[in-house]
Amino acid sequence: MFTLSVTVLLWYTYVQRKKDMEGFGEMVPDSIKEDVRAFLIYSIIATVFFVVLLLVILVMRKRVAFAVELLNQAGKGLIAMPLLLIQPVWTFIALLLFFAYWCVVMLFLSVTGKPIQYNNTINGEMHVEYQEGELISYFWWYHVIGLIWIAEFILACQQFVIGACVADWYFTRDKKSFSSPILRNIGYLIRYHFGSVAFGSFIITLVKIPRAILMYMQSKMKGSESELVRFMLKCLSCCLWCLEKFLKFLNANAYTVIAIEGKHFCFSAKRAFMILVSNALRVAAINCVGDFVLFLGKLGVAGLTALSGILILECVGDHSSVSYTSLAVPLLVGAVFAYLITCAFISIYEVGSGDITFWIYDV
Prior knowledge:
mainly alpha
């Protein structure tokens, strides 16, 4: 119903904006034309999405119902641990602080080396250039690899903490006396499993670096390489991208096994791999449907933001959209920001429901 309401409102707004455009006669500003065209595109996309969504729900209603039940269980876990919703904020702050530190070190590296003084014979000005030594070039590689590794490590720590907290809640029989285990699991991570998480994130780094090199090669060789070379580079990049996604999925489940059984990373990854392979079709089907349901939730928040923006811009001021030159651009920007913020917080639901799915087949 929400998708239908957004679709109807977009078509209604398009009709109203078109009537406003006709009121200008032949002297229609280009911004008004672009606004009307943008609302027409939004309305068509919303209509197509609504039809596809309706067909998917009718065809896969049982699997959708099961995925919704998994998300419902994950939601109950978050109700019991509301502070878990703050985890993306702490992760973002940690990434921001690390990136600031990384930039400061990069500035120091850029001015590290042997200073060489140059004098301008024309105007008498003098400038100094730092010539890098061989050791500094190695530090650049070390610094770049460290950026990727530590960023993946911080994200992996968030996955471990969320998975461990959801596991504690899921396997607790008396949930009425359940207390939030966030701080306990953070201490558990720091004391026992920092190495496992660091090793898992390092594996992801080993895949990201060759992929980044291939992308750099593609950008440098753009327009000069042959069709065969371009095709091979794209195929290699695609294979590495698929491998990276698979390893991230395997690592997430391995962290779940580590949180439950307390084993090292290699044992946990092997156990997670065997469980996933033995239930590959069912896990793939449930994960695809679950990801689709979560995607609908993200679009729902973005659509609600756009809906609220339309109502606010239509009602505030002169109670008419004519006073605004363009509604499409601010609504699109607001919807995109709402979608990105929702992705950060719904990732907790994604980890929680994925862990519950894994435990169902593990048991």
